[in-house]
């Protein structure tokens, strides 16, 4: 497996582990909140039952269970209390209210920074107030929360490590298959370029030798073979660029305006044959030979092939005009290639940049050349590897616009 494939596998495994960890944290948090709520409710219910039992059945304050204090007010107003009654207690207001005939009541009293649960009721002609320190319940709740946090944290770490291991094992066959597929495309494309180049050269030499003596039909057939070999070479170049997985290859400053000028100049003869005008507008269009401000960091060959693909696609479907505009603004460079052809059908934006996708009617092509759906896929691949994006839109007055937006030199692609 290549280094690039290994890097992609590690990244995919890490992302899967991160997603698994986040989901597990959410589930554990929901579980922990539920458990703590149930424990707290159980504690409160148990405390309430205990205090109710104490107020109903305790005859003397010293009979109170551990952790509970009792205050008993006799009918004559005398009172007795459990030893060690916390300061600030009993709750005099509750005693007076129940002594005046109010219903039994449960209150919370805070004294010296501690919480107490207080129940006051009448029993056998007396007013009884039972007091329980809630500090123990709070400590128990804290211990449960701490145990849940430790168990949850351990589970998250172990599950994330397990997810990474499982992801790597599950994705290794897929990564190997993709690597083999890319290697095959690159090897096949590379190996086929040489015989195609020789074929084109030999046909051109043959044309020179028989040019004078041959009739027009023979020369036309020879020109067709030359065009076919050139088209096959271009397709192989596209396949090589698409199959290249290197995200950070040899990068250098690339003047996109100058690159667009070069592509337009090379495309002009073919466009003239079809009665189509190719026009350059925008940045650098009127400063031939001078360096423009439309400079990005990238691979010149890949960027050049992307612009060629845009222009070829536009010429293939244009009726009379193709415009190549290069604009620089806000740290970005936009290359917009528009034509006055039939345009893209509705909904094409979702799949038009996929490989082997073709949305425009081949019968509407002006040049008659078949399209295999690699051109715009190549553009999308190159744009993504250079930190940019690609989009399609309807052109004013009819036709379509395909735009590539790339970060200017020195700009962070992540802030695009």
Describe the structure.
With 416 residues, the chain is α+β, with helices and mostly antiparallel strands. The protein has a domain at 251-415: Histidine kinase-like ATPase, C-terminal domain (Heat Shock Protein 90, 2-Layer Sandwich). Helix content is 51%, strand content 19%. The chain contains seven helices and twelve strands. The chain has helices spanning 3-57, 92-99, 135-210, 216-243, 256-273, 300-317, 375-385, and strands at residues 68-73, 79-81, 105-111, 114-123, 126-133, 252-255, 277-282, 295-298, 321-329, 332-339, 389-394, 400-407. Strands 2-1-5-4-3 form a five-stranded antiparallel β-sheet, sandwiched between helices. β11 (389-394) and β12 form a beta hairpin. α1 (3-57) runs antiparallel to α3 (135-210), α4 (216-243) runs parallel beside α7 (375-385) and α6 (300-317) runs antiparallel to α7 (375-385). It is rod-shaped, with a radius of gyration of 41 Å. The chain starts with a helix and ends in a 9-residue tail after the last strand. Mean pLDDT is 80; it is low at 364-368.
In short:
By secondary structure, the protein is an alpha+beta fold. Helix content is 51%, strand content 19%. It has a domain at 251-415: Histidine kinase-like ATPase, C-terminal domain (Heat Shock Protein 90, 2-Layer Sandwich), CATH 3.30.565.
Secondary structure blueprint with pairings:
Elements: H1 3-57, E1 68-73, E2 79-81, H2 92-99, E3 105-111, E4 114-123, E5 126-133, H3 135-210, H4 216-243, E6 252-255, H5 256-273, E7 277-282, E8 295-298, H6 300-317, E9 321-329, E10 332-339, H7 375-385, E11 389-394, E12 400-407
Parallel strand pairs: 7-9
Antiparallel strand pairs: 1-2, 1-5, 3-4, 4-5, 6-8, 9-10, 10-12, 11-12
Helix pairs in contact: 1-3, 3-4, 4-7, 5-6, 6-7
């Amino acid at each position: 497996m290549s280094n690039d494939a290994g890097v992609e596998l590690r990244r995919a495994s890490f992302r899967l582990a991160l997603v698994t960890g986040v989901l597990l944290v959410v589930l554990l948090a929901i579980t922990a909140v539920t458990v703590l709520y149930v424990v707290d409710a159980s504690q409160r219910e148990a405390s309430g039952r205990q205090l109710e039992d104490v107020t109903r059945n305790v005859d003397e304050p010293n009979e109170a269970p551990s952790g509970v204090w009792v205050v008993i007010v006799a009918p004559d107003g005398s009172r007795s209390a459990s030893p060690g009654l916390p300061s600030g207690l009993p709750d005099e207001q509750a005693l007076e209210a129940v002594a005046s005939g109010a219903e039994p009541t449960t209150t919370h009293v805070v004294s010296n920074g501690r919480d107490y649960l207080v129940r006051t009721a009448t029993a056998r002609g007396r007013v009884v107030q039972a007091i329980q320190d809630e500090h123990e319940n709070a400590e128990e709740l804290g211990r449960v929360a701490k145990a849940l946090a430790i168990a949850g944290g351990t589970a998250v770490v172990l599950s994330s490590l397990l997810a990474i291991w499982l992801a790597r094992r599950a994705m290794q066959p897929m990564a190997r298959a993709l690597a083999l597929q890319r290697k095959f495309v690159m090897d096949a494309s590379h190996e086929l370029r040489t015989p195609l180049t020789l074929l084109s050269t030999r046909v051109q030499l043959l044309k020179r030798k028989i040019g004078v003596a041959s009739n027009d039909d023979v020369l036309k057939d020879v020109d067709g073979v030359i065009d076919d070999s050139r088209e096959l070479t271009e397709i192989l170049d596209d396949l090589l660029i698409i199959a290249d997985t290197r995200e950070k290859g040899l990068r250098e400053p690339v003047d996109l305006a100058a690159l667009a000028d070069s592509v337009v100049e090379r495309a002009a003869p073919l466009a003239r044959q079809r009665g189509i005008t190719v026009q350059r507008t925008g940045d650098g269009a009127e400063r031939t030979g001078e360096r423009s401000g439309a400079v990005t960091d990238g691979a010149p060959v890949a960027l050049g092939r992307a612009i060629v693909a845009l222009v070829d696609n536009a010429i293939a479907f244009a009726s009379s005009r193709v415009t190549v505009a290069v604009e620089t603004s806000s740290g970005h460079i936009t290359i917009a290639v528009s034509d006055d052809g039939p345009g893209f059908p509705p909904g094409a934006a979702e799949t038009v940049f996929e490989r082997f996708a073709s949305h425009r009617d081949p019968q509407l092509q002006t040049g008659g050349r078949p399209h295999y759906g690699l051109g715009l896929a190549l553009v999308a691949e190159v744009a993504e590897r250079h930190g940019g994006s690609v989009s399609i839109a309807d052109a004013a007055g009819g036709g379509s616009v395909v735009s590539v937006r790339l970060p200017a030199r020195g700009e962070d692609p992540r802030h695009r």
